[in-house]
Amino acid sequence: MERKVHYKAVWLGAALIVPQLLLVFTFFYWPAGAALFWAFTLERPWGGGNEFAGFDNFNAVFSDAAYWQAVIRSFVFAFAATALAMIGALLLALFCDRQLRGHKAVRTGLIWPYAVAAPAAAVAFRFLFAPEAGVLAELTRQHPDWWNPAQNGIHAMIMIIVAYSWKYLAYNFIFFIAGLQAIPRALVEAAAMDGAGPLRRMRDLQVPLLAPTFFFLLVINLTDSFVDRLEELVPSLGPAQFFFDLSYAADLQINEFVSNYVISESKTDILS
């Protein structure tokens, strides 16, 4: 017999749900509504109200060359970091799925990086890749122009991609190892009895069965890469100018939301 709890007092249910509704409204609906409002309005230079601008703000954004340069760099970073983090995590998960001595300790060690805060990871990688005091200091002393992320944008991009991939490698590893453990051992053992080696089992059995997990992580990594870029690594590589125009910033947020929505819907269509 199924038991259910019924509250006769309506105020008790309201008291339990109102705090959560306030949090959702304050940190999601209110900022989203404000961004949508500023995207179609134009603030007067010295205050005193705003005017409806329609799609003129979006036309200004799309006609800005700096915006398209930022879009290209963002997509390069997103796809490169996602590919590196997912491929590395998949290989580690495949190797750790084998029942070898010490495999549990290795799994635990590979999960730890995800518990490191993003600013702490950024500071650590900034020190590791610093041309004056990091592990590459000796090479930079012999070849001064070989590595300098503070002045070379490509070097800075490589450093941020590596740091982001290291941070999210543990997150992807958790899902991949869980997906591998969900594969029936009877299938793997049957393939081994048929003469398939470890690499053949990975290619023809385990990796195809991880397709749903792979596409899920692909969407999560791509969407997160547009938000978490570890800018603490290279604080001097910000935009050439700071935009205090709320309408411009709101348009950027709307464009990013649409991009993330398209990526999410693409994942849903592929899986279905």
The gross shape turns out to be extended
Task: Please count the beta strands (DSSP E, at least 2 residues each).
Answer: 2
Q: Cα distance, first to last residue?
A: 36 Å
Number of helices: 11
Q: Give the C-alpha Rg.
A: 24 Å
Name the strands of the widest sheet in spatial order: 1-2
CATH class of the largest domain: Mainly Alpha
Largest sheet: 2 strands, antiparallel
Give the second-level CATH assignment, the architecture of the largest domain.
Answer: Orthogonal Bundle
Mean pLDDT: 77
Helices and strands: which structural class? mainly alpha
Gist?
By secondary structure, the protein is mainly alpha-helical. The protein has helices at residues 10-39, 56-62, 65-96, 103-111, 118-128, 137-142, 153-182, 185-193, 198-209, 211-225, 246-271; strands spanning 41-43, 50-52. Helix 8 (185-193) runs antiparallel to helix 9 (198-209) and helix 10 (211-225) packs antiparallel against helix 11 (246-271).
Describe the protein's architecture and organization:
It is built from 11 helices and 2 strands. Helix content is about 70%, strand content about 0%. The chain has helices spanning about 10-40, 55-60, 65-95, 105-110, 120-130, 135-140, 155-180, 185-195, 200-210, 210-225, 245-270, and strands at about 40-45, 50. Mean pLDDT is about 75; it is low at about 235-245. It has 2 domains: about 10-55, no CATH class; about 65-270, MetI-like fold, CATH 1.10.3720. A two-stranded antiparallel sheet has the order 1-2. It has about 270 residues and is mostly helical. The radius of gyration is 24 Å and the shape is extended. Helix 5 (about 120-130) packs across helix 7 (about 155-180) and helix 7 (about 155-180) runs antiparallel to helix 10.
